[in-house]
Records
---
Amino acid sequence: MSEPTLGEAWADLRRRRPTLDTVLALYDDVIDGWARWSPPRPLETALDATECRRRWDRGVPLVEAAHAVRPHDVEDLVGTAMETLVQAAPGLGESLQRLARQWDAGRVETISLLPARGRIGAPEVEALAGLPADVVALLAVLSLRPALERLFAPVREHLGEGAWQLGICPFCGAPPGFVDVVEDGRRRLACHLCGGAWAFGKLRCPFCGVEGAQQMVRLTPDEAREEGYAVSACRACRGYVKELDRRTRWNGGPPLVEDWGSPHFDLVARRQQYWRPEASLVLLAGA
Ligand SMILES: [Zn+2]
Ligand SMILES: [Zn+2]
């Protein structure tokens, strides 16, 4: 049996969460757009194993390779991403129009949406458009995911066990969007921007690097209790990421689908003043 596509996994999650049906529909156009998209030219990076390892040994992600993705490659994706954001949060309309004008004029482009230290997207995007950093990060994911997934596909296999220790994606450099708890309770962080995944210490914060059981909090709120799901948060920087224990939840979908499909956990974390790098479309919509 072949792996389900992202679209099929999303449809499956929508069936599993009927009470969230209306709000989760906000993501449908993006999921459909990603499935329809095909690159206008080959995008796969040509980095070989030695070049990848040389960068990883120095603690440098492969984000520079993503400079190869140009605005015309992702035009349709960016359009759908902006429309989806406006639909969810009409209040962002003016800022997004400003951004669209800058994009058309070539002053903001794909490189401006790539990760920089500790964030997704260049600070200029925020400044030019007047958009909050977490919305820029979400816009980047909605706009670039299929292109970056394709770009980095050939180099995934080069990442060996223990080759990367940092809390950012070894491929695109983005902070993690979700955590999978796998065999022996080990953690695998998932990147929504490029679809990468990497092993990470159990008691370490991927955002600030602080280590130790007393710094990490697990939220399994009564109001949103579901077997296998939890919010993992850091007392030091107050960053959080949601996690799914794959040992108890074998029918879970891909990390991105599980993340987008569980906005009720984001709500719980935000109420307790925790933050994450990317905005939630559902919470933006105020639903
Ligand atoms: Zn990535
Ligand atoms: Zn932290």
---
Amino acid sequence: MTVPDPDSPTRSVLITGASRGIGRATADAFAAAGWQVVAGVRDRRELAPFSDAGVEVVEFDVTEPNEVRAGVAAAEGLVGGSLACVVNNAGWALFGAVEDVDIDLARREFETNLFGAVAVLQAALPAMRRVGAGVVVNVSTLSGRIPLPLFGMYSASKLALAAVSEALALELETCGIRVVLLEAGVVRTDFARSTVISGAAGGGDPLYGTTRDRILGTLRGIRDQGALRPEDVAHAIVRAAGDSRTPFRVVLEDPGLAPLAKAVGGPDRESHEHVRRFFGLDAVAHRNGPP
Ligand SMILES: NC(=O)c1ccc[n+]([C@@H]2O[C@H](COP(=O)([O-])OP(=O)(O)OC[C@H]3O[C@@H](n4cnc5c(N)ncnc54)[C@H](OP(=O)(O)O)[C@@H]3O)[C@@H](O)[C@H]2O)c1
């Protein structure tokens, strides 16, 4: 079995959700830095070529346990042993009010964002543990720390990933495996198009209409003008994977959301006021039930 050497040019990485967005940029950035890259995708049929022809592709859906086990085993086969790094990036958001969001959709979101990441780790960690080396990078979001209205389930799934990552870091710190949680602000990708809308947040209902318009309007403005590029996140991930001095939590703020991220941090009540002001929600009156 190959022992991953952090200084070796054959450092190897498996990235989930590498078909597009942050995952694809991360695959390209690792390849440019000389890593042996395995891109985890759900469907390779429509896949555009990676910038480096050496990037290998394995197909698996992180919510399908058999596919995950076979996909990680295939990745290990391609790199000739234990993976030096695993990047859990596959994820999507559910947009809906806690009050009426479809709970089955919320469960499916957790299956990808939380349990999918755990399944990939359960498949990859035994080999890493045997060689006593490796890095796990779990991709999270600033809205894991600053839950936003109508993104409650998404924030919850990423907060849960943060908790699991923290426990994992403590569980693995004595066996040479590092864990990094990367919290990124708004990134210019197709994430909004993959976002699933549920319940009254879908519009056409006055209940959450104004909140929806203000949240989406602000986020669209940030995405168009002040967002991070997927390459920015990719480079932060490659740096974190290669540098053993990287702290557990890496925060990558985008210029647009940075003022909110800086303001939040006080007691809950104060944080809520910052969020309301930032998105212009102060004056939004929600319809109450009958008196
Ligand atoms: N964009 C942002 O503003 C932002 C900010 C902070 C954190 N993030 C996080 O960064 C990660 C990537 O987001 P992105 O912006 O690059 O989004 P994206 O462009 O929508 O890409 C999402 C990726 O996840 C994959 N995926 C979704 N469900 C999957 C599943 N069940 N199994 C395997 N792959 C699956 C998609 O594959 P398919 O092509 O097959 O659909 C795609 O490759 C997510 O975890 C997201 O929460 C995003």
